[in-house]
Amino acid sequence: MPKQKISILVPMYNEAAVIAAFFPAIRAVMEKADVDYNIICVDDGSTDDTLRLLTEAAEDDPRIRVVAFSRNFGKEAAMTAALDYADGDAAIPIDADLQDPPELIIDMIARWREGYDVVNAKRVSRQSDTVVKRGSANNFYRVFNRLSDLQIPENVGDFRLMDRKVIDVLKRLHEKDRFMKGLFCWPGFESATLEFERQERTAGDTKFNYWKLWNFALSGITAFSTLPIRIGIYLGVGVSAFAFCFGVWIIAKTIVTGVDVPGYASLMVVVLFLGGIQLFFMGLMGEYVGRIYMEVKDRPIYVVAQEIGFDEKH
Ligand code: UDP
Ligand code: MG
């Protein structure tokens, strides 16, 4: 019987500083795992030496394959490409900076062999993250799971094992704005969860600042839930009902006590309140309209400039 094959998927953007440590770490683990494997690296338009180092690595090791983008398309696009190129019986996305401990792959494969189609890796401690990042991550999962029908497991990143079945379903999800944490959960199937301590980055810098993360969170939520605009309906009904009662009361009061001119304060409160709500929901609708716009343009998710190491049989 041929050995089962695992594809390790690695998005890389300006990771020249970690490449030298990354491949030996993965190799050491995979050698122990008794599987056939390949490593699919996506160079996400790096401006440093990443592509050159990857090309050299691919020349030395037939298991390493490189897909180079024509420019930076973002981590989600890089991950999508890696999945498209993956040919293993299972795939494991992993960050290049070794924040996801490769040793966990052994346990993932063991659970996979027990019959689980998805093996999640959950961060038990986020000591390596700042207090603000930890807090906002917790809130994100809470809000997301409350608003969306799809439940995503807390503190499970992209590092996970997915069976071929799952990958094939993922490849049928063609949306352009890709929130991978959500998409990864969408196919379902039997899942197991392992726990691990998130490490510090070995070298280099994080590519995500708070503004990027905030936008990422917003697009993740709007990609998986229309509840935010639906709230507008209830709020609209509530405010209208209040306005109606208020109107009845004013008319009755005018009939009984006559015209009463002062009322500037209450008028301002109502006008400003309604204006605020209207603007808020117009913005929210705009967000969804914008998303429709991006989807109907139907541009490709990424553009490949170069493929390296794909002829070898590994
Ligand atoms: N990454 C990418 N494209 C980008 C940004 C990041 O492919 O535009 C990759 C990056 O090289 C790394 C992974 O995504 O392998 C995670 O990035 P990072 O470590 O900066 O994120 P953090 O761990 O700080 O959340
Ligand atoms: Mg990292």
Summarize the structure in words.
This protein has two domains: 5-209 and 300-308, Spore Coat Polysaccharide Biosynthesis Protein SpsA, Chain A, CATH 3.90.550.10; 227-297. It is built from ten helices and eight strands. The protein has helices at residues 16-32, 50-60, 75-85, 104-113, 131-147, 164-170, 180-185, 210-224, 227-257, 264-297; strands at residues 5-12, 36-43, 64-69, 90-93, 118-125, 156-163, 191-197, 304-308. 51% of the residues lie in helices and 17% in strands. α2 (50-60) links the parallel β2 (36-43) and β3 (64-69). It has an eight-stranded mixed β-sheet with strand order 7-5-6-4-1-2-3-8, with helices on both faces.
Concise structural overview:
By secondary structure, the protein is an alpha/beta fold. The chain has helices at residues 16-32, 50-60, 75-85, 104-113, 131-147, 164-170, 180-185, 210-224, 227-257, 264-297, and strands spanning 5-12, 36-43, 64-69, 90-93, 118-125, 156-163, 191-197, 304-308.
Defining key terms:
binds magnesium ion; Spore Coat Polysaccharide Biosynthesis Protein SpsA, Chain A; 8 strands; 314 residues; 17% strand; 51% helix; eight-stranded mixed sheet; alpha/beta; binds uridine-5'-diphosphate
Blueprint of the fold:
Blueprint: E1 5-12, H1 16-32, E2 36-43, H2 50-60, E3 64-69, H3 75-85, E4 90-93, H4 104-113, E5 118-125, H5 131-147, E6 156-163, H6 164-170, H7 180-185, E7 191-197, H8 210-224, H9 227-257, H10 264-297, E8 304-308
Parallel strand pairs: 1-2, 1-4, 2-3, 5-7
Antiparallel strand pairs: 3-8, 4-6, 5-6
Helix pairs in contact: 1-2, 5-8, 9-10
